[in-house]
Specification:
5-stranded mixed β-sheet, globular, alpha/beta, 43% helix, single chain
Length: 134
C-alpha cells in the first residue's frame, strides 16, 4: 500500500461525517379584528432575524400599525432575534403603531427576562389578549 493510500484510509476512519442541517424560521401573517397576527415557527437567530425584520418592515410599510407576534412556535431566540424585535417595535412606535408579543415559549420568556426586555415589551398569554392590548 502506498503512503498516500494509507493516510487516506486513516482520515476516512477518523474524520466525522458532516451533516448539513437547515435552520429556518417560518413567518406567517393573518389579519384579525384589531390588527395583524404574525406567527413565528422555528429559530430566530443571526441567520433568520434579518428576514424577520424585512418582512415586518414590509408589513409596516403597507400600513399595518397594530401587530401581534405569536411566538408559540419559536423554539429558540438569540440576541440577534431580540434585537430584531426591538427594531420592529421602535419602527412601529415611530409610525404611531403598537406591538405585542403573545404565547411565548418558556425559552423565549427566559431570554426576555434575562435581558430585561420583558419589562418594556407588551407580553400576553394569548393572541386575543394581545389584540385587546393594542
Amino acid at each position: 500500500m502506498t503512503e498516500g493510500a494509507e493516510w487516506k484510509g486513516f482520515f476516512e476512519r477518523t474524520m466525522p461525517t458532516i451533516q448539513t442541517v437547515e435552520i429556518a424560521m417560518e413567518i406567517t401573517t393573518r389579519k384579525a379584528e384589531g390588527g395583524t397576527i404574525v406567527s413565528l415557527n422555528g429559530r430566530m437567530d443571526a441567520l433568520t432575524a434579518p428576514e424577520f425584520e424585512a418582512q415586518m418592515s414590509h408589513i409596516i410599510d403597507a400600513g399595518d400599525r397594530r401587530l401581534v407576534i405569536d411566538m408559540h412556535g419559536l423554539g429558540y431566540i438569540s440576541s440577534a432575534g431580540v434585537r430584531s424585535i426591538l427594531v420592529v417595535a421602535k419602527k412601529l412606535q415611530a409610525e404611531g403603531g403598537k406591538l405585542a408579543l403573545a404565547r411565548l415559549t418558556d425559552m423565549v420568556r427566559e431570554v426576555l427576562e434575562l435581558t430585561g426586555f420583558i419589562k418594556i415589551l407588551t407580553i400576553c398569554d394569548s393572541t386575543e389578549a394581545a389584540l385587546e392590548r393594542l
